[in-house]
Every structure is written in structure tokens, then in C-alpha cells.
Amino acid sequence: EALRNAAQHSGASEIRLVLRVMPNEIQFEIIDNGIGLPAEDSGTRRLGNGLANMRKRIEGIGGKFQITNRSGTGTAVLFVIPRERAEASQGIASNVHDELTNR
């Protein structure tokens, strides 16, 4: 969702994906050099449905979601997921993949 938003709405010439694997968490950041978000979307007053849904999903697994709006110079969206939750999800995804490929 965040990548699609950056590609469709930012007018960016560059979108960077940054993955940081830390001892207790995994951070995934999407940074663009586009026009930034309208003021009402970057604060707590109002988030578009896509942004609000991303926040809800990340916080639902104990993670953090942060938007940094650099009006006129881009936007950064940061997802921070507890390492144990990410590894548990990876195990589930791996089991589903194995089950599907062994049919």
C-alpha cells in the first residue's frame, strides 16, 4: 500500500526501500522525494483509509507505524515490527508455501 501510494501520488523521481534487521525488531522504511502529503494526512487529524489501515494492521501485531512528511521534499513511512512477531509470521508463511508446493 505504501509503495503504491508513493508511486501513484507522490510525483517522486526516486523511491527508496530500506530494511533494517535489529536485535529486537525489524524496520521497513519507504522514502520518496515527491511532493509530500497534504497537511491533514500527515498528522493525527485525518489519515486516508489506506494509511489508517496500514497503521491498524501494524499496531495490531504490536508494531509501530510512523509517517514523516517533508512537505515539498517527500514522505517517509516507517514500519517497525517486533522481531518475534516477524519470525512467527515467516514460519506461518513458510508452512503455507510448503503445503501449497507439495500438492
Describe this structure in words.
The protein has 4 helices and 4 strands. It is globular. By secondary structure, the protein is an alpha+beta fold. It has a 4-stranded antiparallel β-sheet. β1 and β2 form a beta hairpin. The longest helix is centred in the last third of the chain and has 19 residues, at 83-101.
Tell me briefly what this model is.
The protein contains 4 helices and 4 strands. The chain has 103 residues and is α+β, with helices and mostly antiparallel strands.
**What is the structural class?**
alpha+beta
The spatial strand order of the largest sheet comes to 1-2-4-3
Largest sheet: 4 strands, antiparallel
- Share of residues in helices: 40-55%
* Straight-line distance between termini: 31 Å
Provide mean pLDDT, rounded: 78
Overall body shape: globular
Radius of gyration over C-alpha positions, nearest whole angstrom: 16 Å
